[in-house]
Design goal:
37% of the residues lie in helices and 22% in strands. Helix 2 (14-27) packs across helix 10 and helix 10 runs parallel beside helix 12. The chain is of the alpha+beta class. It folds into 3 domains: 2-153, DNA ligase i, domain 1; 224-425, DNA ligase/mRNA capping enzyme (D-amino Acid Aminotransferase, Chain A, domain 1, 2-Layer Sandwich), CATH 3.30.470.30; 432-585, OB fold (Dihydrolipoamide Acetyltransferase, E2P) (Beta Barrel), CATH 2.40.50.140. The protein binds adenosine-5'-triphosphate. Adenosine-5'-triphosphate is lined by residues 222, 224-225, 245-248, 252, 267, 295, 335, 373, 400, 419, 433. Adenosine-5'-triphosphate (ATP) binds next to strand 1 and strand 2.
Amino acid sequence: MVEMFQKMGGTSSRIALTEYLVALLKQTPPEIIDKVTYLIQGKLYPDYEGIEIGVAEKMIVRAIASSSGKDGAEIERIYQKTGDLGDACAEAMKSKNQSTLFSEPMTVERVYNTFDRVARTTGPGSQEIKLRFISSLLNDATPEQSRYIVKFVMGQLRLGIADYTVLDSLALAFTGDKGNRKVLESAYNVSSDLGTIAKLMATKGLRAVRSLKVKLFRPIRPMLAERVTTAEEALDRMEGKAGVEYKLDGERVQVHKGKNGVELFSRRLEKITGHYPDVVKAMGSIRSEVIMEGEVVAINPETEEYLPFQELMHRRRKHGVEEAMENYPVVMNFFDVLYLDGKSKMQLQYSDRRKLLKKIVDSVKKNDIVRLINQAAVKEPQEIDRFMASAIENGCEGVMIKQLTSTYRAGAREYAWVKLKREYRSELADTLDLVIVGALHGRGRRAGKYGALLLAAYSPKDDMFQSATKVGTGFTDAHLEKFYEDLRRHIIAQRHARVETGMAMDVWFEPRLVIEVIASEITVSPSHAAAKNAIKLGFGLALRFPKFTGKIRDDKKPEDATTVEELISMYRGQLKTAGVKTADEG
Ligand code: ATP
């Protein structure tokens, strides 16, 4: 694994990254392939488990000091020089005098199990115990092994191996055919657990993967919506009739209610049960086992007005949630049901799921929290417009329009669901969520911070991040400070293997952070790579006059960013509004 880490860290080719991974998976014994799959992504478990390794940096410095026989100040000095604690560790260990007698062999299992213990040690005095576990590994490690042990524990492996890269590699390694990724992806969409899929694939084969079932407390990847700009277009997409719902500006939550408890998962499928104890309590009275989806929104209890998404920030904390619950009440607006008493309901039509959902919500003991989202059946564009006006009046950001006959397609963004948002005057009809992949150093007032950030859209077809704009406006001083701090952990020496751009940057980042921007229009661009050649040969698409809206989308993974296909359709929509015909319309 260490050899692979070295190779993967040194490449800026996405294809090479996949090849290394295929080679690694082929060599891995099936019994530990789940563990290897988690480790290469810098994890110990699937994200939804929400368990973190949780070691303080100063503890790692102490562990390195004791294993290398140097003092803490010396390690800090090397760390200052290398800028990465893993690299500092490797350097310190190189000059270590002697290796330990009777050392245990450094197997993947041993490393994984030790990390696992570190992660599971909590409570008072846990840092000292964690320190001992880490030292036990470093004592027996070669300098190269120690480099990656420390990087892992620090959460700084920075290989940027996406879920899709793992799925491609599994298909290639075990079937020799990348086309089988589809089967693996469907299993992933309903289980969100690559380790389990890897193990099933390696031990029982593709058929077992195909029959993986929805299970309580294993989150399902959310179904997503395409965007439209008019009610007419929405109805065209729905063959003339549809359900229209409020689109609330809150946080999407997937609620899993079992016999013995409730868990809540975010849009990116992380466990957020602790943020909303009031929702958990309100769900307690449901008799059945269910998986439901809804939007949790902050509310002004006096006026019953919905409040903007930012108000939910107060709930994202480890301590004092009880108090935040009092001061920032929320309501949970359910819009879908995916599972009921042992059976998946995803194959039911939307109209039937809605009926079932109503029944379940009606069965909840009366409380102020759980509600059914406002919905109406529509046939005419005017009906949508009227519904939209009432949604906006009630503090929504627009409406969702859903095809009555559509099944729940986990992980898919399709026209079965479309979103129609309030119009923004003289700007693009929607905001975009883009990934930060590079930066330029600031000058003048911004000296010592970043002056501009390079942003990229996601291209699912080739699993790449393609640059679409450079943004420098919309940032407050606090933002500049925060970005400088937050991005520090993601700095890499060269352009990332999954980033494509014609722009030269001062600093490159592993694609991790997603931010929301608004722009005046989309134009063709010779230097940006987004949707390259799709509109004009040799040109990509870029945003003009982009501005940061102030929203950091930490509920989105980089692969959930606006896609290049969306950029293309927004570009075409813009031409349509201006009355210009696109090539494929003649
Ligand atoms: P956006 O950036 O517009 O919020 P998104 O990229 O997060 O969208 P989309 O699938 O494009 O996700 O838009 C749907 C989102 O809108 C959902 O993820 C959910 O959080 C929110 N939402 C609000 N009301 C509804 C509703 N009635 N049905 C489905 N989703 C809803």
